[in-house]
């Protein structure tokens, strides 16, 4: 175990990011080159190895956090990596992209200084790759069964790796020209450089997973035929149907869904084009939506050279302390500053976010392009407009980051596999991830859960793989960390 008094003589000290102005000059990760192992070891030593580690309950993967903290504190990075990978296929993804509800559930969070679990996780994962501790793990035998995985985001990749290691022949079908789903084209490189994705894909190929990019299942590739060719199908297509803003002026030029914009920026990073099809360069940008996707748009717009960036959040500004209805260890809605917000503050001198505002309409110019948003303050409880509070914000590019409402509509996948939607717009399934009314078809990740965190996607991919393995051979030794109907801890 770690030093039981470590938290008393060592203060919480997160790994510092690169200076904001420095990172705004490139697309490298915020923490590129910043993680120092001695600092991480000292922080891991603050873990108390609690009798009841609430950090476990806050993480759907069931990560063995006190165990790998103890190994990291002693500098046994190989053992730390083994414990980390025991529950998580891709810890370098989660260490970068997860908002770390485990830290808010840490017992030390009661005093406001939890263990820097996210930093420790990333450091272990990265050091494991650098030291050659992470290798391919091909199966010792093959089952003679084949599985199609449709979608190559974190849920699809996790399911594919687990099923390949269980001995099944797995083929991953991806509509885009490259493997990775949102990890490839939705997540900006300053949050996770694509090299981390590439080496996992290379590992999976070495283990035997087959990848087919440019395959639009439900379109050019008939999903029903795919089901006949394979013994089972895992649908992990994500929840890419962006929510709309049905107000006047929506059809004006310069108003785009956030994912359209982020994909364009990521394609430039992949070398597909010298310039993005949608750019913020020299423009006044307004991002509508206060979540992580909106923050990603803010960081991207700043790097493209936007003249100004404003982010509109319909929710009231949260407080700095937990509300009474969100007690520890629940992940609270508190005032948080993302790295993109920090960058905007440094560039513009103020937080780019405006809270408790809703869009009434868009105003256009003579060319049919957006020139301004008309906003109103809203009541916190029901979001109804407050009379007499209308204001105007100038804009030359508007990005809608309002969340997602389930898998994309209009393709043939749903009809050809016989999938049905539930009341939330996601694909209906039972608690064991089996699609309702479609034998041998399983649904994993955001396609069934709805928009969620990367840790939930990986947990669902692992659990769905266990369900598929059981369906194919009658039993399974694969881990199943969650059920399809599990939800995050709430009060």
Automatic annotation (TrEMBL):
Keyword annotations from UniProtKB, A to Z: Amino-acid biosynthesis, Glutamate biosynthesis, Oxidoreductase
Spans traversing the lipid bilayer: none
Pathway: Amino-acid biosynthesis
Domain of life: Bacteria
Ranges for region Disordered: 1-20
Annotated 4Fe-4S ferredoxin-type domain residues: 38-69
Protein's UniProt name: Glutamate synthase subunit beta
Organism: Streptomyces toxytricini (Actinomyces toxytricini)
């Amino acid at each position: 175990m770690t030093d039981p008094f470590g938290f008393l003589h060592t203060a919480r000290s997160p790994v510092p990011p690169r200076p904001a102005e420095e990172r705004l000059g490139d697309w490298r990760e915020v923490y590129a080159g910043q993680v120092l192992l001695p600092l991480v070891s000292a922080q891991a030593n603050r873990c108390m190895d609690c009798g009841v580690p609430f950090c476990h309950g806050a993480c759907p993967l069931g990560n063995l956090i006190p165990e790998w903290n103890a190994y990291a504190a002693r500098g046994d990075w190989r053992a730390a990596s083994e414990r980390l990978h025991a529950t998580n296929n891709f810890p370098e993804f989660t260490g970068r992209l997860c908002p770390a509800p485990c830290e808010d559930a840490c017992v030390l969070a009661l005093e406001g200084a939890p263990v820097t679990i996210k930093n420790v996780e990333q450091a272990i994962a990265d050091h494991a790759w650098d030291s050659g501790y992470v290798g391919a793990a091909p199966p010792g035998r093959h089952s003679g069964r084949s599985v199609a995985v449709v979608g190559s985001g974190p849920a699809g990749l996790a399911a594919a790796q687990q099923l390949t290691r269980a001995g099944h022949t797995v083929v991953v079908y991806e509509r885009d020209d490259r493997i990775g789903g949102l990890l490839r084209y939705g997540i900006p490189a300053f949050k996770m450089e694509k090299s981390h994705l590439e080496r996992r894909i290379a590992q999976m190929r070495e283990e035997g997973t087959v990848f087919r990019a440019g395959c639009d299942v439900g379109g050019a590739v008939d999903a029903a035929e795919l089901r006949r060719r394979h013994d089972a199908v895992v649908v992990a297509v994500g929840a890419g149907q962006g929510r709309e803003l049905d107000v006047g002026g929506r059809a004006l030029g310069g108003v785009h869904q956030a994912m359209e914009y982020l994909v364009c920026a990521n394609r430039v990073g992949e070398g597909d084009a010298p310039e993005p099809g949608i750019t913020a360069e020299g423009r006044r940008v307004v991002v509508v939506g206060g979540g992580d996707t909106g923050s990603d748009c803010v960081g991207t717009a700043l790097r493209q050279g936007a003249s100004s960036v404003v982010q509109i959040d319909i929710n009231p500004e949260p407080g700095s302390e937990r509300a009474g209805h969100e007690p520890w260890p629940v992940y609270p809605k508190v005032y948080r500053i993302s790295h993109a917000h920090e960058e905007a503050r440094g560039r513009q001198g103020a937080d780019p976010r405006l809270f408790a505002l809703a869009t009434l309409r868009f105003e256009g110019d003579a060319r049919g392009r957006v020139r301004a948003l008309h906003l109103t303050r809203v009541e916190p409880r029901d979001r109804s407009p407050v009379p007499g509070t209308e204001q105007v914000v100038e804009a030359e590019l508007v990005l809608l980051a309002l969340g997602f409402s389930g898998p994309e509509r209009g393709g043939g996948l749903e009809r050809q596999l016989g999938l049905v939607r539930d009341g939330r717009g996601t694909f209906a399934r039972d608690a064991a991830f089996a699609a309702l009314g479609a034998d041998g078809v399983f649904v994993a990740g955001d396609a069934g859960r709805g928009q969620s965190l990367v840790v939930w996607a990986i947990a669902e991919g692992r659990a769905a793989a266990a369900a598929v393995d059981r369906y194919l051979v009658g039993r399974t030794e694969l881990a199943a960390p969650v059920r399809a109907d599990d939800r995050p801890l709430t009060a």
